[in-house]
Design brief:
- The complex is a heterodimer of chains A (about 80) and B (about 160).
- Chain A is α+β, with helices and mostly antiparallel strands and about 80 residues long.
- In chain A, about 35% of the residues lie in helices and about 25% in strands.
- Chain A has a three-stranded antiparallel sheet with strand order 1-2-3, with no helix packed on it.
- The model of chain A has no long low-confidence stretch (mean pLDDT about 90).
- Chain B is about 10% helix and about 30% strand.
- In chain B, strands 1, 2, 3, 4, 5, 6, 7 and 8 form an eight-stranded antiparallel sheet that branches.
- The two termini of chain B are about 20 Å apart.
- Classes of the chains: A alpha+beta (about 80), B mainly beta (about 160).
- At the A-B interface, helix 1 and helix 2 of A face strand 4, helix 2, strand 5 and strand 6 of B.
Chain lengths: ~80, ~160
């Protein structure tokens, strides 16, 4: 990991198109601004990790779903 | 399921939905979280699976998830995709949009939950897709699809 020290108001440029700015810095948290092209996804890492976990757990591996589905059909 | 799924919407969709989305490969420029390198997916149906579809990777067909059209869920008005996010996949109006919710099967309880926190949004005009993680902290990654009285879902 590249570690740089920044003061409030200072920025870091990543590649050609991404700028990360320290907007505000207090004792318990840092407010970080990200300027990036609209298409580039920007996420809090723990949120992204959770979604990644959920997607992997959502993979349907076998035919088990068909009998469960049929039960749903009967109930709707 | 009776509580969570709007049956009248479902009947309407089964008449209107001529399977248009199923004919196309959808490009996911950033893959999906957990499958970042997979860029081509299709939304397909298996025999008798309707209203459920499968979001299946063209490149790795074992990467396949059960999905449900978000319009079928009674909580669909909580699944709000901001205009800024729609622009990320080039959607100019809602006629060009399809939203699918990824379902997860809990193997022990044999019950499905829906990830309404991170819907899959598809631009049906250009066949572009992206899973959007919504800001609303109230949205669950494990929204239950069984009737009221079941186990409460976890929340983000």
């Amino acid at each position: 990991m590249l570690v740089l020290t920044r003061k409030s108001g200072e920025s870091i440029r990543i590649g050609n198109d991404i700028i990360v700015t320290v907007v505000e810095n207090s004792s318990h948290q840092v407010k970080i601004g990200v300027t990036a092209p609209l298409e580039i996804p920007v996420h809090r890492e723990e949120v992204y990790t959770r979604i990644r976990q959920e997607n992997r757990a959502a993979i349907i591996k076998d035919r088990m779903w068909t009998s469960v589905l049929r039960r749903f059909e009967e109930n709707v | 399921m009776r509580e969570s799924v709007d049956v009248s919407v479902r009947r309407k969709l089964s008449v209107d939905d001529k399977g248009a989305i199923e004919r196309h490969t959808i490009e996911f420029p950033f893959g999906l979280p957990g499958f970042e390198s997979l860029r081509k997916f299709m939304v397909v149906r298996e025999k008798d699976s309707y209203p459920f579809h499968f979001l299946r990777s063209v490149e790795e067909p074992e990467v396949s998830m059960l999905v449900l059209d978000a319009r079928l869920l009674k909580v669909q008005d909580r699944i709000r995709i901001p205009a800024r996010d729609l622009r990320k996949v080039g959607i100019r109006d809602t006629n060009e949009m399809a939203v699918y919710i990824i379902l997860k099967l809990d193997k022990k309880s044999r019950k499905f939950t829906a990830n309404i926190k991170a819907p899959v949004v598809i631009n049906t005009r250009e066949n572009l897709g992206r899973q959007m993680i919504l800001e609303d902290r109230e949205l669950s990654v494990n929204y239950p699809l069984w009737p009221a009285g079941g186990v409460p879902a976890g929340t983000m």
